[in-house]
Each structure stands twice: as structure tokens, then as C-alpha cells.
Design brief:
- The chain has 2 domains: 117 residues, Rossmann fold (3-Layer(aba) Sandwich); 37 residues.
- Helix content is 50%, strand content 12%.
- The chain has 7 helices and 5 strands.
- The chain has a 5-stranded mixed sheet, sandwiched between helices.
- Strand 4 and strand 5 form a beta hairpin.
- It is elongated.
Length: 191
Amino acid sequence: MARTFSYCRVSTADQTTDNQVREIEAAGFTVEPRRVIAETVSGSVAAMERAGFAKLIDRLEDGDVLIVTKLDRLGRNAMDVRATVDSLAAMGVRVHCLALGGVDLASPAGRMTMSVINAVAEFERDLLIERTQAGLSRARAEGRVLGRPTALTMDQQRAVIASRAEGVSLGVLAKQYGVSRAAIQRVEKRA
């Protein structure tokens, strides 16, 4: 008899996989708690390089079913998602994605659907990156200073440089100006 597993992933520690587990239950799947694999790791990390997913692979057997709520739970890169699904299919594991109507991703229809959706997702990411880079370039061209504002004013920075030339320690200056030693070192580096 086929066993059912679910793989739930979030990117940051302040997120939870609870909603993904509920979605799977609402779709009519009963997954034993010990077969719910949840982890916190960026989608940019290849699935096979994730600790939780690697443990899942070791537990899966021919005939098992793996459920994910969305394709991006497996990865952000179309090639990685495709390789992961192909590896699972070679093991005899069926992969069902709820967002795609529960289609088996290893089936011909599932593979085609997955390819189209992955291509669109990658295109959207590329457009976002392109727009972000264009915005940064425009801001630089307009003379805007990007990044975190400096902790010290220009007068304070000049005073720090003069004090360092006189041999005042990083710790003393950091305490005097209420900043970290690294902030004093950055002032020196920029000078």
C-alpha cells in the first residue's frame, strides 16, 4: 500500500509550515505526523542539498506519494524542480502538487504543466531582477547614495581619522561615538 508523505518548506524562521499542512488536510489527504517533513531553508538551495529533503529521500520507497502545496516548495529554479521530480519518478515516487490540481508531476501532463509554470516563474523573477537593477542604476545616475546611512557625520568621521592618526584605539573611539569597532574601521577604510 502506498504511503503518503508531505514536504512543507518555509524560507525564514519567522514563518511556519502550519498553513501548508492544513491545505494538504483540506485537500483530503491524511498524512501521518511522522511523514510530514517540514524545514526552514531558502528555495534557492537545491532540494537535494537540503537536510530535511535529503532525509525524506532516504525514507521514500517505490509506490509512495509525495504531496507539496506549490511547485516552489521544491525549488525556485525550473531545472532543479525538474531534476528533483525526475529523481523521485525514477524511485517510483509520485509527486502531487495541490496548486496544480493534484496532478502527478511525473506524468506527461504533469511534466508539461510543470515546465510551463516554471518557465513563467523564472521569467517573472528575471523581470523583477531587471527592474530592480534598472532602478538602482537610475538612482545612482541621479546621485543618490545607496545602502545603509553612515553612523557618523562627516565631522565625526574626520575627528575619528585624526584620533586614529594620533594612536587612539578603536575601542575608545567606538565607545566615545556610540558605534561599533567595525564602524570605526569602515571610516578608516573609506579615508
